[in-house]
Structure formats: C-alpha cells, structure tokens
Amino acid sequence: AQKVTQAQTEISVVEKEDVTLDCVYETRDTTYYLFWYKQPPSGELVFLIRRNSFDEQNEISGRYSWNFQKSTSSFNFTITASQVVDSAVYFCALTTSGSARQLTFGSGTQLTVLP
Amino acid sequence: GAGVSQSPSNKVTEKGKDVELRCDPISGHTALYWYRQSLGQGLEFLIYFQGNSAPDKSGLPSDRFSAERTGGSVSTLTIQRTQQEDSAVYLCASSPRQGSGGYTFGSGTRLTVV
C-alpha cells in the first residue's frame, strides 16, 4: 500500500514571497513515480511534473523547483516570487509499478497568494 | 481531441435515479482512469482501463458503480440508484502507454444528488 501526506492544509503568502509545499510519501516499491498537480478554481487538474524514483536530481522550471529526497521520502515543491495566479490547490501524487499505475493523491494544499 | 473531454459538466439528479458520465480521452492514449473528488474523501481512484486488458475495478465503492470503455476509446461511468453520498466531481484522465509522462485530466463532471 502507498500513502502520500501533505501536512499543510492551507498556506497564505503575500505576492513575491517564496513558498514551499511539502509532500511526504510511503511505498515499499523500489520503482515509483511522483507527481505534482495544480488545481486552480476552474477545477481542472493541471500536470506540473513527474519524477521517477531513480532520478533524485532537483529540477527547476521557471519559478518552480522540486526537491526530491529519497532519504526522507519527500518531494517538496517551491514557488519562487509567488504571483496571485499561483493561487490554487496543489496535489502531490504517487504511483508504483505494482499499482497498475493508479495515482494515490495527497489531500492537497490550498495556496493563496495575496496581492 | 486536444484534451480529455467529459460530459456533462454538471449533473443534478434525484436520489434513486441512474446516471451516466462520459469521458472522451486523448486520441491514442491507451490508459484511461476515473477518479472521484469529494470534500471529505479527497481524490479517490475508481477504475482503470489499459488497452484491451481487463479493467482494474478495485476502487469502485459499491456494485452500484460500473464503467465500460468501448473500442478502446470513449468510456462511460454509470452509477445506479444514486445516493446523496455519490455527490462529487468525477474526473477522467488518460495517459499514453503505462508509465509515460503525466496523466491528463478532464474538467470533470460535478454530480449533485438531491
């Protein structure tokens, strides 16, 4: 069985602040994939990133960066210089080789960026 | 089409009626998933189709729920004798062959059972 924990239910920041969204996962599989999705008020889940368990390199994409650490089973997401348009619910998710590729989602973090 | 299309976008039904929700995946995507998003339960996996293989129905909450995928493309999720606890947003996703890339989600169907 696998589990994804997003301990932060809600975060509120002022525009231009940096913010980190935490994600901790549990799985016994050695091969797994981690994802981050954004769900803006419109409701559609927008894919942000996919990372496999064999690739621990951190990744930066514009204002977004991801820190994957197998030693702590964490896959944290940082938004630099946040903007109002970043306001959304962010979900971390996990799938493993043994789970028929179904995604196990965390409970989500509601990020509000204030102007 | 360019994305995953779901219909209807909103559905209000009376308790005890049957409903059908439709998902049209991205052309060429062999994997198709149904998820349910509700306030108390977050995002829950319901069912998974991969090509012509038997579907993984392990997430269906009761035998009132069923789904089919015709011709490896369009999928229909059917809920029989709807209950108020079935009220949720039903999301469909598709992906290319297993394990490649991200899953693309549709905008969902908001089901309200009154």
Structural write-up:
The complex is a heterodimer of chains A (115) and B (114). Chain A is mainly β. Chain A has no helices and twelve strands. In chain A, 34% of the residues are buried. With 114 residues, chain B is mainly beta. Chain B is 0% helix and 48% strand. Chain B contains no helices and ten strands. Chain B has strands at residues 5-7, 10-13, 19-24, 31-38, 42-50, 65-69, 75-79, 88-95, 104-105, 109-113. Chain B is globular. Chain B starts with a strand and ends with a strand. The mean pLDDT of chain B is 90. The interface between A and B is medium-sized, with 23 and 24 residues.
Helix content of chain B: under 10%
| Assembly classification | heterodimer
* Strand percent estimate of chain B: over 45%
Number of helices of chain A: 0
Low-confidence stretches of chain B: none
Estimate the mean pLDDT confidence of chain A: 92
Helix/strand-derived class of chain B?
A: mainly beta
Number of strands of chain B: 10
Rg result of chain B: 13 Å
Distance between the termini of chain B: 33 Å
Topology (elements, then pairings):
The complex is a heterodimer of chains A (115) and B (114).
Chain A: E1 3-5, E2 10-14, E3 19-21, E4 24-26, E5 32-39, E6 46-52, E7 59-61, E8 64-69, E9 74-79, E10 88-96, E11 104-105, E12 109-114
Parallel strand pairs in A: 2-12
Antiparallel strand pairs in A: 1-4, 3-9, 5-6, 5-10, 7-8, 8-9, 10-11, 10-12
Chain B: E1 5-7, E2 10-13, E3 19-24, E4 31-38, E5 42-50, E6 65-69, E7 75-79, E8 88-95, E9 104-105, E10 109-113
Parallel strand pairs in B: 2-10
Antiparallel strand pairs in B: 1-3, 3-7, 4-5, 4-8, 6-7, 8-9, 8-10
